[in-house]
Amino acid sequence: MNAYDVAMQSLDRVAGIMGLSDEILDFLRVPQRAMIVELPLRMDDGSQRIFTAYRVQHNRALGPAKGGTRLHPEETLDDVKALAFWMTVKNSLAGLPSGGGKGGITVDPSTLSLAELERLCRAYVRAIFPILGPKVDIPGPDMGTPPQVMAWFLDEYENIAQHHDPAVFAGKPPLIGGSLGRDRATGYGLVDVTEKILQLRGENLTGKQIAIQGFGNLGTHAADLFTQKGAVVIAVNDVHGGIFNKNGINVKEAMKYVQEKGSVKNFPGCDSISNAELLELKCDILAPSALQSQITAQNAGRVKARYILEGANGPTTPEAEDILHDAGACVVPDVLANAGGVTVSYFEQVQGNYGYFWPAEEVLAKMSAIMQRNAEEVYAQSVDKKVTLRQAAWIASLGKVVAAMKLRGWAR
């Protein structure tokens, strides 16, 4: 199954519990707007290549679309549709006045020169400009879109619009309207949710062994905060390789090593570990924080972690989740666990609109309060309705989306 199939299967699983009508389901299955554009790019050697790109707005019943933009060589329309759908659920669950949106360019950014990448980013904004704006769609960062890319996006938008509008993109450098704390938000939010779920189950982070798939922005900041709170990170990986140390990895030194070498591969004092081995490690918490569909029916039976903390979007397929639950594992769903990033993206939008910016400590404190509140509410709903955490999260979220759709007269 591709990501969109997984998203629809998850929708089907809560539709019966919620008693959603066919009319509502038909509306939720299809994005309200999907744009596919072809971007011609003049390469440094004078040749020309064509790149396919997308922007999808799934549902705007609660407000303007909001969601990241991903640069990845295997990006497809179905992936972007699924991610936009998940953003509708995530934004609603977090209590944001935002709908779900997502974008992407099918490209491996590491194969482009800096000048080529900038030209491609600007071409993307020119192509989707008609459906952008702080009251229409606010793109944020994702894989392959660090603050510099978001700065190019903003500059190209403002060149076309001929006015200053920092609220139209999130994830920008603070110097040009970005929010302090945005770089740490998703990873820190992941830790906030974990800590709250453990507390509600009579546990805490002290001494917990953690394996993190993905040591990018999310994974590094989560690993750093986990260790500050007394947990032990025993394994991490990235696209180039993975490392394992049963006694714990020195996360801060690993972060410095990545800055110098570009990967955790061959980090001193650790053994090498494959992606499959990391997912199947015996540990307390496994945090798949890379791509979707990493834990499937094929490998779920070999996953030994007691908690699956979804840092990525859609890393666990529905069939795999059934297997994990049968084995007694607790799956903390993506729409709850990784919402710290989009929450601070919303804070960035608010700060941009006001032209008044908060200290990083205030940003992260506001985010933490929201993440812990959401975790507590989802857990209570799960216990009350005797459903999984994912089902509880979706029921709470889609209940608000459907209510807004009915108020607007979109459905009965």
Features:
globular; five-stranded mixed β-sheet; 14 helices; Rossmann fold; single chain; seven-stranded mixed β-sheet; 2 domains; alpha/beta
Short description:
The protein has helices spanning 3-18, 22-29, 77-93, 114-128, 147-161, 182-200, 217-228, 251-261, 275-279, 318-326, 334-337, 340-354, 360-385, 389-408, and strands spanning 33-42, 48-59, 65-72, 99-106, 137-141, 209-213, 232-238, 241-244, 271-273, 285-288, 307-309, 330-332. The chain is of the alpha/beta class.
Number of helices: 14
Gyration radius from CA atoms, angstroms: 20 Å
Overall structural class, as computed from helix and strand content, comes to alpha/beta
CATH architecture of the largest domain: 3-Layer(aba) Sandwich
Instruction: Specify the biggest β-sheet.
Output: 7 strands, mixed
State the share of residues found in helices, binned by percent.
40-55%
Return the CATH topology of the largest domain.
Rossmann fold
**Unreliable residue stretches:** none
Span of the ends, CA to CA: 31 Å
Output the strand order for the largest sheet.
9-8-7-6-10-11-12
**Quantity of strands, as a count:** 12
* CATH homologous superfamily descriptor of the largest domain: Leucine Dehydrogenase, chain A, domain 1
Average per-residue pLDDT, rounded, comes to: 96
What portion of the residues fall into strands of 2 or more residues? 15-25%
Number of domains: 2
Q: SSE string, helix = H, strand = E?
A: HHEEEHEHEHHEHEEHEHEEHEHHHH
CATH first level of the largest domain: Alpha Beta
